[in-house]
TrEMBL record:
Belongs to the acetyltransferase family. RimI subfamily. It comes from Saccharothrix hoggarensis. This is [Ribosomal protein bS18]-alanine N-acetyltransferase. The keyword Ribonucleoprotein applies. Its main location: cytoplasm. It holds the Pfam family Acetyltransf_1. It is found in: Cytoplasm. It catalyses: N-terminal L-alanyl-[ribosomal protein bS18] + acetyl-CoA = N-terminal N(alpha)-acetyl-L-alanyl-[ribosomal protein bS18] + CoA + H(+).
Length: 152
């Protein structure tokens, strides 16, 4: 399903229902984000972008920023577009925002999500710790990963 050009632009409130549907498709065994959760993220000024193909949202990513650090809140790509570089493009967009601010970036990732872990390692993240039973209700463990500030 990788036909079409991927465009990255700010996530819009009208994308919220589609985001919630994607969450439920990708994370059925855990606690997928609700429409209210996405609205709250957008309303609170966090940095969220969407990946669009022919005007259709196929992925999204969000970054929380404070004065001291950034936190990747989510990256998700629909099944039909996984493995085609959409997630990498979304991550690089978040990292560019963090680099503009000169801040380190932290995230949690399921320990069994090898493609995501490899993506993060390839972009300068390292393992910092393990959070047992982090994802609920599945009880899946998560690695905490971090990337130093890029102050170039």
């Amino acid at each position: 399903m990788s036909a079409g050009t991927v465009t990255i632009s700010p996530l819009r409130h009208e994308d919220v229902p589609r985001c919630a549907r994607i969450e439920h498709e990708l994370f059925p065994g855990d606690d997928p984000w609700s429409e209210d959760a996405f609205r709250s993220e957008l309303d609170n000024g966090n940095f969220y972008v969407g990946a669009y193909v022919d005007g259709v949202l196929v992925g999204y990513a969000g970054l929380g920023l404070t004065d001291f650090e950034c936190s990747v809140h989510t990256i998700a790509v629909t099944a039909g577009y996984q493995g085609g570089g959409v997630g990498r493009t979304l991550l690089r967009t978040l990292l560019a925002k963090a680099d503009e601010a000169g801040l380190p970036v932290f995230l949690e990732v399921r320990t069994d999500n090898v493609p995501a872990i490899n993506l993060y390692l390839a972009h300068g993240f390292e393992h910092l710790g393990l959070r047992r039973r982090y994802y609920q209700p599945s009880g899946a463990d998560a690695y905490t990963m971090g990337r130093p500030a890029n102050r170039d």
